[in-house]
Amino acid sequence: MQKTSLATPMLALAALIISPPLLADNAQPGADLVVGAIEGVFGVTPGERRNHIKGTCAAGEFVGTRKAARLSKSPLFSGKPVPVVARFSVSGGNTKVPDVAKSGRGMALEFQLPKGKLHHITMLNTPMFGAAQPQTFLDLMLALKPDPATGKPDPEKMKAFKASHPDNLAQADYLASNNPPASYASSSYWGIHTFKFIDKKGTATLVRWQFVPQDGEKRLSDDELKTAGANFLESALIERTKQGPARWDMLVSIGQPGDSETDPTVLWPAERPRIKAGTLTISRAEAQKGAPCEPINFDPLVMAPGIQPTDDPILRFRSPTYAVSFGKRLSER
């Protein structure tokens, strides 16, 4: 298997992600406000991410399929192995969040393409997002801010938030009714948003994707929730990759007229046609401190030709928000 070069110098990446056009176009007060609200909930660990702070680095490769290459001219689908730097994570900004928490798990991928080009994919282990608009996410963070008297969110504020933000309910219900994964390697991850595949003729196809584990889906049982411990996910992934590569199939759903392009809280019908677009192979994992994934800002709008974003307001807002968080942690080192 091709060996992956994992080094991504922080300053070079900063120059790539926070370029002058991005700052001019996207560094808006709204992004600062959202990052500040996240800090209000979890506090600040200097030099670290504001969200998905607890994570594990990994590396491997991706090989695309001919079926995907017919729909997208992206070099991801050339059929040749593409080196990948990955990061698996638990949502939230608390470094001590337990791995049994009924919250989101993330998979972030940086594809290292020929000629120094990069492509990012960031995913969650829920098929939908918990906000149709950035305001909903901001309001959730404001409602979750701990009351100084109790150290916990105000129940009345949370009740009011749920009553006034129905776009949060589907993801909240999904997380409440599904136990967390037993391993990062036994979980599916969804791209959440709608994207466009662009072929060699310039034809666009609306797509959504899911990375499905070849190990099969496995969640913690109710009994295992009580005994798994607070920090099992990292060691489980490291041990899993020592036994042999962990793999996920990238399954791409093809959009039809009327399918939502801009609302990540609305699922597409299950009967939409799907193709296998490729296979991700993770061959090794390690603690993130000082590891290659640690400095990377996994901005989902870092894209190579052949894949484009839609006008999903959450997708578009993630980039400036990630940039604000990234800039803060760079300045704190």
Automatic annotation (TrEMBL):
Keyword Signal: yes
CDD domains: srpA_like
UniProt cofactor(s): heme
Range of residues in the leader sequence: 1-24
Highest taxon in the source lineage: Bacteria
Gene3D superfamilies tied to this protein: 1.20.1280.120, Catalase core domain
Domain (Catalase core) ranges: 3-330
SUPFAM superfamilies hit by this protein: Heme-dependent catalase-like
EC numbers for this chain: 1.11.1.-
Protein keywords: Heme, Iron, Metal-binding, Oxidoreductase, Peroxidase, Signal
GO molecular function: peroxidase activity
Segments passing through the bilayer: none
Enzyme class name: oxidoreductase
Family: Belongs to the catalase family.
PANTHER family: CATALASE (PTHR11465)
Role of this protein: Has an organic peroxide-dependent peroxidase activity.
Protein name in the entry: Catalase-related peroxidase
